[in-house]
Design brief:
By secondary structure, the chain is an alpha/beta fold. The chain has nine helices and ten strands. The longest helix has 18 residues.
């Protein structure tokens, strides 16, 4: 489904701030893969998501999605294929618009638009059904402004909006990091339900080793712009936090420290 081939990226080339953030990164996602990506600060986790989404151009390499070359496509051209949820719950929604209006915008993404804005009865029925699946009571508040929602409710809504059109690829960039542990667990549970129900292919960046191990069918660890290892199948199922720390230290040659900012909880 997704092919990342020999992708490299350096920021501020030719200046004193020159920083290589991705170094010849290659990996492939199969249809239906749910891959967690873990690594310390500066490992390149979020950068690889930005490269796939088209936020920045890559220096070299190729990115293909479902056989289509996205390498030189702009971010807005990729948006019809890719859903994305950010760390900041405020980023994915329009606070001054109603819940149903936000969903309508997401539902019409990539489609031809007319001058008519009204939300149809059929759309409202679909939105109500989808919102009820979240278990947050938002199906009873469809006319409420999104700005009235809590951070967790907004992130759950953003997740629903990102997946409404069944994107070919769902990118989750530490989308529970700004939430309290109880709310984060609820949003993660919703994430798993949506991905399984719609058979989506997903990449989820996280700092949390326990989440990275327990969620999805594959785990990729990055370090200094490179992939240290890619674990899947039975090996991932039997993986522990101690195993992950040992693999990190063995593959990187670097002792795990707090500077790596990988949370164990």
């Amino acid at each position: 489904m997704l092919e990342v081939r020999h992708v490299s990226k350096t920021f501020d080339i030719g200046t004193v701030n020159e920083t290589p953030v991705l170094k010849d990164v290659s990996f492939t996602l199969n249809d239906g893969d749910f891959v967690t990506v873990i690594g310390g600060n500066g490992a390149g986790k979020s950068t690889i998501l930005n490269m796939i989404a088209g936020v920045y151009p890559i220096d070299s390499g190729e990115i293909l999605l479902d056989g289509e070359d996205l390498t030189n496509k702009k971010e807005h051209e990729r948006a019809k294929y890719i859903g994305r949820v950010f760390q900041d719950p405020m980023k994915g929604t329009a606070a001054d618009m109603e819940i149903q209006e936000n969903l309508a915008m997401a539902n019409r993404r990539g489609k031809k638009r007319s001058l008519a804005w009204g939300i149809t009865a059929n759309e409202k029925a679909v939105f109500k059904e989808e919102l009820s699946m979240l278990g947050l009571g938002l199906e009873k508040r469809m006319a409420d402004k999104v700005g009235l929602l809590s951070g967790g409710q907004r992130q759950a809504l953003t997740l629903l909006m990102a997946s409404l059109q069944k994107p070919k690829l769902l990118l989750l960039d530490e989308h529970t990091a700004a939430l309290d542990p109880k709310t984060a667990k609820k949003v993660l549970d919703i994430t798993k339900e949506i991905i399984e129900k719609d058979h989506l292919t997903a990449l989820m960046v996280t700092h949390n080793m326990k989440d990275a191990i327990q969620i999805g069918n594959r785990l990729i660890m990055m370090y200094e712009g490179k992939i240290l290892f890619d674990i899947q199948g039975e090996e991932k199922k039997s993986l522990t936090v101690d195993d992950l720390l040992h693999k990190f230290e063995e593959a990187s040659g670097d002792e795990f420290t707090n500077d790596n900012v990988l949370t164990k909880r």
